[in-house]
Amino acid sequence: MHSTSVVSSTARLAAALAFAWACAPASAQPQVFSDRAAFLTASQAQAEPALPNLGRLPGDAAASFTIGHLTLTVSAPSSGLWIGSGNHPLVGPDWTTLVAGNDIAIDGRENLNIDFDAPMTAFGFDFAEPTTATVLYPPCSQLCPCANSVYHVVLRLNGAEVAAFDFNRPDDTAAFVGVLTDTAFDRAEVHETSGTCDDEYFGQMFTRPFTPPCDPDVNCDGAVNGFDVEATEQAVNGDFSNFCQASADLNGDGAENGFDIETEEQRVNGAPC
What we know:
Blueprint: H1 9-23, E1 31-33, H2 36-43, E2 46-47, E3 55-56, E4 65-67, E5 70-74, E6 80-83, E7 104-107, E8 111-128, E9 150-157, E10 160-167, E11 175-194, E12 201-209, H3 226-236, H4 258-268
Helix pairs in contact: 3-4
């Protein structure tokens, strides 16, 4: 666009997921969707809160906005972040009618980053690449002529790339981009790799938190035995170094304690999940 434990729960989760990712086999290719209904059916993702109409955020390229599970920022050469039009007199009440509700717009080429407050397994968003004004503001100009925009998306966990894909949606359509993975991620980088400073817009976003599989091999050594019980006991006491799952709450009661050790003992002895 022109213009209370030894280690905190967050740290434990990050460490456990990193261990799990390192021990797990290579992830399959992510499933990428262009149809919102198909994505929601396959992923069971839920909508994040609707975007407010704030306009251009303070901070220019360092602007940041948090809503729901998401924190939005931009990367160079992007130089500003808009959440809705803010009823700017040159923009009007909305950037485009192709995206329902308020839109995310970016100054310069669109390099959008999304950090999640918990690991996710699915993420999607409404998207539009208009070539003519649908409200007031023209998405292209002599300075920023319309050009086909291709995007590269990188999904990361603790900074490491876990999946990536490209997308190029048709112009002048109400489009959608969704991804479903078998590997957790806590950041998505949606960066424009071709095009000009003409405008594309992002809308409603959807997420599904990562749920670790029910697997009694909690130390990822390929066997189910007393070492898994020991690893669970260590994790309940704050040491996740030998525990490769995202949480030691194995019985799903919302707490990590001796009952989870008991659950792991039962699973090691053949009880179903």
